[in-house]
């Protein structure tokens, strides 16, 4: 039987008769055997992202063509928890899907660091602040076409300090709901923003709901 080194990359994929490889997380390296990039072209610049292309070649040289992706600053979102163990939710119109979207606070990481960006987004969108912050983790929004990451923070014991300080393009309504209600909101597709759902999923992995 053909022997395969754990987590070695096979550019042509699994062929008939090949054994399925077990996955070994401790051996996984997403930065090994990368495709080469050259001839960057800046195509379109906007206030929120830039469209660029790279001529990219696979390690086995079988694929060599222009690929397109969007460049953007990283994003942050915040799981804001009140002293009563309720989560703050915001509702705003989303142009991409032409409907309102129930979410957790978040936005572009424009401040000096990620924590300051998360604190600013929470304060601006809700008027709430916290002295108890924890970095939860990060996910990619769509690594096929986006180059950035979305980072999630937990803000505990949030309190209302001031009115919202929204951008001139924002209209946001604020709600709160008990933490145990969140899974049903996701299951019912009321909370559907992918990165927000991922953030809440990470939260419940580390903080399971107790029956």
From TrEMBL:
GO terms for cellular component: cytosol. GO terms for molecular function: hydrolase activity. It catalyses: GDP-alpha-D-mannose + H2O = alpha-D-mannose 1-phosphate + GMP + 2 H(+). Residues 15-29 have a biased composition (Basic and acidic residues). Residues 1-11 have a biased composition (Polar residues). The keyword Acetylation does not apply. Pfam families: NUDIX. Residues 71-204 form the Nudix hydrolase domain. GO terms for biological process: nucleoside phosphate metabolic process; ribose phosphate metabolic process. The keyword Hydrolase applies. InterPro entries: NUDIX_hydrolase-like_dom_sf, NUDIX_hydrolase_dom. Belongs to the Nudix hydrolase family. NudK subfamily. PANTHER family: NUDIX HYDROLASE DOMAIN-CONTAINING PROTEIN, UDP/ADP-SUGAR PYROPHOSPHATASE. This is GDP-mannose pyrophosphatase. It comes from Leptospira santarosai.
